[in-house]
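Tutorial handout. Part one gives the primary structure; part two gives the three-dimensional structure as tokens.
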Amino acid sequence: MGQTAPGSILNAYGFDGLFAERFEPYGEQGLLPARVVVEYQHIYRVVTEGGELLATVAGRLRHRAGGRVDYPAVGDWVGLRRIPNTTGEERATIHGVLERKSRFVRKVAGSVVAEQVVAANVDVVLLVMALVDADFSPRRLERYLVLAHESGARPVLVLTKTDLCDDLNDRLSAARAVTGPNLPIHTVSRPRDEGYDDLFAYLQPGQTVALLGSSGVGKSTIVNRLAGRELQRTQEVREFDGRGRHTTTHRQLLLLDGGGLMMDTPGMRELQLWDVDEGVEETFADIEDLALQCRFPDCLHTTEPGCAVLAAVEAGTLGQDRLESYHKLRRELRALAARQDHLNRQFEKRRVRAATKAFNKHAPRR
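Part two.
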């Protein structure tokens, strides 16, 4: 199946030449292309050339899935087959997920060692953080940047609630120390209606812009302002701490009148990272560059002599808190890798034990 005609629904939702090529094997099976716009529990709302459908994962795909990462996520392009429905609303089954050009992956909350795709096929990610005391955290920003750099999408920082911030310049400097000199930073204020015009530049036809951030920082307000109407429900800011109240309850991909696509996501109360070595290297490029100047190539940047990273901390050109955050993330990733190795060994033992038991059961007796 070739690329859809300009002006088609799928074209508006970002079905370009790349995804048309990736869809060809599914088209040969008689499947239809669709994009996931909402994910509910065990059911998805998808957009096809003929309109929206509710879809579930086909049994064969569920059987082949190695984990949650293999299931569809909001933003995914999928191959599906329509099924008859006597209730009046058409349904479909999803038989395959196209290779993603970008994906936001985090470890699932809690003690379970598994990865979860938060959003897929995003072009630009707006990392939204409020400037009020309760929400502004350079350390949390580092974690979001690691996730964004690892995803393959272009990160942009949006700082909200400038009207409640008395030390804007200091906070901008603190944010810039984390982002580096080249990442775009925008500031917005809802009561003053300031800063939103700069965000329109990211809304290009067929391009997907996602918003990530904690609860109550103003993501839904940004969606509504850029859409020109209330697409997402918002609640008033609490007077005692300046925080908004969480309103978005599920991830949703929205097609705006101007042609751009926006993905609003629920606030992340817990952001555990997953396999983000490259994201850490890019987010902490200042430390990684300094590490190249260390006397020993395997320097841990703790107590080693000739450590350029520690020398930068001593000279005041690198913050001690930033180095501690770097060490913390590295420890977290090492611990995750160790748990994955342990679980893999346990799984292999169980597999061998089951295979041996089955062999012994059916082996001919002498």
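Part three, for discussion. The longest strand covers residues 32-39. Residues 108-113, 235-248 have pLDDT under 50 and may be disordered.
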